[in-house]
Design brief:
Helices cover 33% and strands 20% of the residues. The strands form two sheets. Strands 1, 2, 3, 4, 5, 8, 9, 10, 11 and 12 form a ten-stranded mixed sheet that branches. Helix 2 links the parallel strand 3 and strand 4. Helix 3 packs across helix 12.
Length: 383
């Protein structure tokens, strides 16, 4: 029986909005991780049969099939195609799914799944600027922004502002500790950037984690969504820039090339959920994938649940009963940042390296997505 295995995974450091990556074009940023992932694996890019690139805001530099453009920029041979997909925040997690599915179907043996978003250069929502939602949609569903959705989730699950701020502070604390311990060094590719004064800098550390934040500072932030609301910039993910790539192969091809499979993609799931609450999909997606894999929550060593807003993983913890000590051990998007189309591959890259560092066997990644969806993936470390 065919198996889809992960050979290599790499990401850029995540840049803050208008930070060190803001001077790099999105296509160039995506090309960097495509070049690096095959280089690290020692694989000839001519063997890659497809590049599947997640990207949410497909306009401007991120339009015109950035997946294909990035492959050309990375000097992949002309015969290597590329495609760009949008599953909202889970776009590059879906890219990993599509790569695995192509391999399991026998259509391909080597696929690069990747994602990119430079939100400094291509603002979120700019691809729908000047466009209203269809009355055919709004007559059927109440469509509100994600901040308001999160306010309703917090109210429904009884999650307080204090709990959200405490979760956010912990995310920063865990990320800072991970940085100080060098846990991200293996997964990050250093990037040379040009500073405004013309000098050059090697950028190799995520810009998002804040060492100086506190509950007092977080409590002082106001909600942009509701008067006296609970959701603030402090307990939500950061607007960020970044890219990541995952090299997926059939086990047979990897062994034929003399490569060691590091992880098996054990199970995949995707669900639709209430488009008004929008961000609750990780709860049913988790139940679905555990059933598909024949595993229980206690079997999972690490959970990576995207921190789009603090209320999302908190609601997930309440409903699933998962061990909070296994959740996002090195921090999440609140501290590290959330470059939309890159985040799925970024979480997968971090999950892979943390399972290897700790010796864990199973990892589960799940992400909420716009319009009410969620992807979940379970990977298994191979000895």
């Amino acid at each position: 029986m065919r198996e889809a295995v992960i050979i290599e995974a790499v990401r850029t450091p995540i840049g803050r909005r208008k930070g060190l990556l803001s001077s790099l074009r999105s296509e160039d940023l995506a090309g960097m991780v495509l070049r690096e992932v095959v280089k690290r694996a020692g694989v000839d890019s001519a063997l890659v049969e497809d590049v599947v690139m997640g990207c949410v805001t497909q306009v401007g530099e991120q339009g015109f099939c950035i997946g294909r453009q990035a492959a050309l920029i990375a000097d992949y041979p002309l015969h290597v195609p590329g495609v760009t997909i949008d599953r909202q925040c889970g776009s590059s997690q879906q890219a990993v799914h599509f790569a695995a599915q192509a391999i399991l179907a026998g259509d391909m043996d080597i696929v690069v799944a990747a994602g990119v978003e430079n939100m400094s250069r291509v603002p979120m929502g700019s691809n729908v600027k000047g466009t209203d939602l269809s009355p055919e949609l709004t007559s059927r569903y109440e469509i509100i922004n994600q901040g308001l959705s999160t306010e309703r989730i917090a109210q429904k699950w009884g999650i307080s502002r204090q709990q959200m701020d405490e979760f956010s502070l912990e995310s920063h604390s865990k990320a800072v500790k991970a940085q100080e311990a060098g846990r991200f060094e293996r997964e990050i590719m250093p990037i040379k950037v040009v500073l405004p004064d013309g000098s050059e800098k090697i950028f190799n550390t995520d810009e998002g984690p804040r060492r100086d934040t506190s509950l007092e500072k977080l409590a002082g932030l106001k909600s942009p969504f509701l008067e006296n609301g609970q959701v603030t910039a402090g307990n939500a993910s950061q607007i960020s820039d970044g890219a990541a790539a995952v090299l997926v192969m059939s086990r047979e091809k990897a062994l034929a090339l003399g490569l060691k499979p590091r992880f098996r993609i054990l199970a995949r799931s995707v669900v639709g959920s209430d488009p008004t609450l929008m961000l609750t999909g990780p709860i049913p997606a988790t139940a679905k994938i555990l059933a598909k894999a024949g595993l229980s929550l206690s079997d999972i060593d690490i959970f990576e649940v995207n921190e789009a807003f603090a209320a999302i993983p908190l609601a997930w913890l309440i409903d699933t009963g998962a061990d909070p000590q296994k959740l996002n051990p090195n921090g999440g998007a609140i501290a590290l940042g959330h470059p939309l189309g890159a985040s799925g591959a970024r979480l997968m890259t971090t999950l892979i390296h943390e399972l290897e560092r700790t010796g864990g066997r199973y990892g589960l990644q799940v992400m909420c997505e716009g319009h009410g969806m969620a992807n979940a993936t379970i990977i298994e470390r191979l000895d």
